[in-house]
Amino acid sequence: MKQRRSFTYLLYHLVFCTKGREPCISSREAPVLFSFLESKAHELDCYLEEFGAWREHVHLLLRARPTLPLCEVYRQLKAFSTYSWRHYYADKPFKWADGTYAVTVDPFDCEQLRQYIRNQPRHHYERSTVRHWEPDDETT
User: Fold this and answer.
1) Which residue would you say has higher pLDDT here, 121 or 57?
2) pLDDT category, 120, cuts 50, 70, 90?
3) Spatial CA neighbour of 139 closest among 32, 15, 8
4) 19 in a structural domain
5) Is 128 contained in some domain?
6) Domain of 17: which CATH number?
7) pLDDT in tens, 66-116
């Protein structure tokens, strides 16, 4: 029987916002939140290629396998990070909003998006956000 080989490189730009857009993600807490999301992604056999956070939302550039439904990925990422946050920061409430912003990304033409995600604080301080990469209030 002939062996079949497959190649997939599926990238998604995901944005999760906090419930009510509460500004509870500080620059000190963002790396901790990243570690929660990264460990769950690894467990799902996914890879977080980029992460960026700003007070009330996070941007992720996620590589996922094609056999895993995207809705399951973000459901588990949000659930695990909420659970972990509540145990790590027991005195600081945290909850994600119900909605999710998710778009597919061309893996060979996404350097601008990568830089945008990495530099979230700068873009928000300078008010140089890119509208189509930021969810509106109706999305989240």
Assistant:
1) 57
2) confident
3) 15
4) yes
5) yes
6) 3.30.70.1290
7) 999 999 999 999 999 999 999 999 999 999 999 889 999 999 999 999 999
How many structural domains are present in the chain? 1
Angle 35-38-42 from CA coordinates, rounded to 5°: 140
**Residue-wise burial string across 33-56, b where 16 or more C-beta atoms lie within 10 A, e elsewhere:** bbebbbebbeebebebbbbbbbbb
Q: What is the pLDDT of residues 8-27, one digit of tens each?
A: 889 999 999 999 999 999 99
> How many residues in total does the chain contain?
140
Pairing, β 57-64 against β 47-54:
antiparallel
Whole-angstrom Cα distance, residue 53 to residue 27?
8
The reply to whether the predicted model has a pTM over 0.90 is no
Domain that holds residue 121: 10-133
Q: Is residue 4 part of a domain?
A: no
- 139 inside domain: no
Integer Cα distance of 37 and 10 in angstroms = 18
- Identity of the residue numbered 77: L
Contact 10, 66 (CB under 8 A): yes
